[in-house]
Amino acid sequence: MEIVKPGILIDxxxxxxxxxxISLALILIGIxxxxxxxISTGKMFNYGVDFAGGTLIQLRFEKDADLDKLRAILxxxxxxxxxxxxxxxxxxVLIRTQKSSGSLSGLQxxxxxxxxxxxxxxxxxxxxVEVVGPKVGRELKEKGLLAIxxxxxxxxxxxxxxxxxxxxxGAVLALFHDVTIxxxxxxxxxxxxxxxxxxxxxxxxxxxLNDTIVVYDRIRENHPxxxxxxxxxxxxxxxxxxxxxxxxxxxxxxxxxxxLALLFLGGEVIRGFALALTIxxxxxxxxxxxxxxxxxxxxxxWDINKLIPFAxxx
Length: 314
Prior knowledge:
314 residues, alpha+beta, Multidrug efflux transporter AcrB transmembrane fold, Alpha-Beta Plaits, 2 domains, four-stranded antiparallel beta sheet, two-stranded parallel ribbon, 6 strands, 64% helix
């Protein structure tokens, strides 16, 4: 099956400056959102219990829950620093506090007792309770960041070994681009950042790399022997990306259909994970064409091999 007519040649590299400008704008908007969040709330992201620490209680009521009434009930019971919000429907409620059960004895029982007493006309059941200490939350956040860094370093070494160092630089910059834009959108939308989103970011790294490797393989196949100029390299990359475009689009679209099904039908619990993957698939497909490959062009244009001798393989 071919989405793009065989033999067609698209000038992708001719649009690389426009693509870089769009990417730079998206990255700056995301970083700006992180800085704004840091200044206004003290945190770059809306960290979930996994990273911020605390206790999360999920309740399901028989009828629509009155959040204002619940806040008043818990405030009267001495629980002032709590966040109460809908969770997928008006009958599902999340109650989150930065205090864990170790610092606030019997929190679940205290919450349940206060709501039963102050809101008897709307019975409920406790669906979920999660408790993470602040120290554990910080460790998870630090290890999550290190996991992404180590993954990119490993990819840098792998692509350098399989192709050349200049290709590895392009691949890693594309992955950094994908992760930064995805995280920036979560900061901008104030979506919750937890272990599920971390798993999604690592999945995006692997998915985006797969697309990039396919393009790089075709570039190597079309790469003529002898000395290359940036102009000749542009022709090779345009032909290689055009030849793999149908495969790239088919893979991305079929994966996107599955992820969109999770996003809209999978329920609130995995919605953040599915949203991150949706963003990552779109951005990752874009970056394998407009970020990873143009870096190789600029490498030839600026003749960086003269500046970094170890980057050239004989």
